[in-house]
Write a structure and sequence with these properties.
Helices cover 39% and strands 16% of the residues. By secondary structure, the protein is an alpha+beta fold. Helix 3 runs antiparallel to helix 4. The protein is globular, with a radius of gyration of 18 Å.
């Protein structure tokens, strides 16, 4: 890919709230995952791990989502539980991003979280560049004790997001470019 093509991909990347079968095949997904690990990582701590969930395993994740919603609900609304369970089926593949904090005086926890987030971002960009789509979601599931326990997230770890991956819809939104002057400036005296 030429650099102009890559920049065009970056400029066109967008999130898709609904994704479809098929997800990227195993070989392509492996290539994307390997490349995504090239994200900036101060001192090479690699303070992260990722769980890939697809197929029938989404039922188990959906059950965790539903159990969490029932746990925090003031009323036992079966419809809310059903809606929560269906969130595990928004895409054929879900990648759970987990920061695994390392004790290091030179690399604070916030920087380790950014390193993990960089990998998730790279995965999303790689998926998009390969003709697929993704959306990064967090919400209360990410901090749920029920979801954490079900996914075996340790006490020194945090879920930083759920990256939903699959085939994107045929029609994409037309996004207008952001005005860079609203976000970037050159430092001057």
């Amino acid at each position: 890919m030429m650099s102009k093509e890559f920049i065009k991909v970056m400029g066109n990347r967008q999130s898709f709230s609904r994704l479809f079968d098929p997800p990227p095949d195993t070989k392509l997904m492996k290539d994307i995952l390997v490349a995504s690990l090239r994200s900036p990582d101060h001192m090479g701590l690699r303070p992260y791990r990722f769980i890939l969930i697809s197929g029938e395993q989404r039922n188990k994740l959906g059950e965790l989502f539903a159990e969490h919603k029932l746990d925090i609900s003031v009323d036992e609304n079966p419809e809310m539980s059903h809606v929560a369970k269906q969130k595990a089926f928004r895409a054929p593949l879900i990648i759970v991003g987990i920061v695994s904090f390392q004790e290091n005086q030179r690399v604070p926890r916030w920087e380790q979280k950014i390193a993990a987030a960089g990998v998730i971002h790279n995965i999303g960009l790689g998926v998009y560049a390969s003709g697929f789509g993704s959306i990064w979601r967090t919400g209360d599931f990410a901090s749920s004790d029920i979801v954490r326990k079900g996914l075996k997230v340790n006490s020194n770890e945090e879920i930083i997001g759920f990256l939903y991956v699959g085939s994107r819809p045929e029609k994409q939104r037309k996004l207008k470019p952001a005005a860079i002057d609203d976000f970037f400036s050159y430092w001057s005296d």
